[in-house]
Amino acid sequence: MATTPAQKSWTPFNLELHAIAIILKTFESLLLHQTINIFTDNAVCVQLNKYRPVSAREKKIAYLSQFQLNVRYIKGSRNYTADLSRLMDDLDESEVENGGHLKK
Fold first, then answer.
1. Domain residue ranges in the chain
2. Which residue, 34, 69, 72, 82, is most buried by CB atoms nearer than 10 A?
3. First CA to last CA across the chain, in angstroms?
């Protein structure tokens, strides 16, 4: 999904929140009572449970708070599976434990 002209001025944190919210909203009925693993190279996202919105755009944090999110930070250069369409079922157990890293 491409960003709109207005979204091009958003911070990486806001873009990441927006992407997470779209995915969760799309599969809300399936994910509401599940623990959801999110791998990100955005360190701010790891602190979602402590973060306080500073703009109307960030109010979607309240929406995200109803989900059981397990957000893990992965350095960008090591985040080989940074494709939001990839399901955790596609990863084997060692990749999940390694934060979604694929062995090269």
1. 10-77
2. 69
3. 28
